[in-house]
What does this fold into?
Amino acid sequence: MTARPVLVAQISDLHIKPRGVLAYRRVDTAAALAACVRELNRLAPAPDLVVASGDLVDDASLEEYDHLRELLKPLRIPLAVIPGNHDAPAPLRAAFPDLPYAATTALNLIVPVGSLDIMLIDSSVPDEPYGLLDAQTLSWLDGALAASPIRPALLFLHHPPFLTGIWHMDQQNLRNAGDLEAIVRCHKRARLIAAGHVHRATFTTFAGIAATICPAPNHAVALNLDRLLPPAFTIEPPGFHLHCWLPGAGFGTLVTHFVPIGTVDGPHPFFSADNPLP
It folds into this structure.
């Protein structure tokens, strides 16, 4: 019998505000997250894990984290979170006290899921929009990847370690991407780098493996590839990523699906008993 896939859903950049407050006076991020949770709960088969890859709240206040926890209560899937540049370690840790973070400073975390290791890497820098992996995090990641060399590993962090062409976001990406690349290239079991931060579904390669940016459930960073255009956001169809690991020879196969949030028409069968041909 073929082993079943391991499914890891990724949501990112939730930007939850205090109750009743809109982001940028326009975006209801709470309603967006509630719709995202409903979509996650509808998936069949259910994901094995949901990873929230940073910017969980907007101003890192206790009130926002309390609101976040309330919105996530209906989620029926195990959840793991890491911080982004809009988060703060202490209130985030207090909001999710059961997560076994690897240290008291950087909030790094390993979650075994079946035959996979899910590694959540803290790229946040206090009071800065850009990302950086400190020496402790780099050492932790190198050791964690070396500890189980035959298990595939998916790596999640908030800040992308690659350029997107959106100039104002590229100024805020991971500053020491070269340090991350050196570690990933030393450990063949790393199969994916999955980031957030840019609010857009993006696909490339980094350090010789697949690399993605997860879209947001609320607003998108405008696709401005011209440096003369000012930073802006748009309201686009929301979604999240579903990373599907298919076991097989070597480290198996990884496929990432974009999942739209909201009502769609279907599913409709291609064939029926009365009409077996298209």
In short: Helices lie at 29-42, 62-72, 89-95, 135-147, 167-170, 177-186. The longest helix spans residues 29-42. The longest strand covers residues 239-246. The chain has a mean pLDDT of 94.
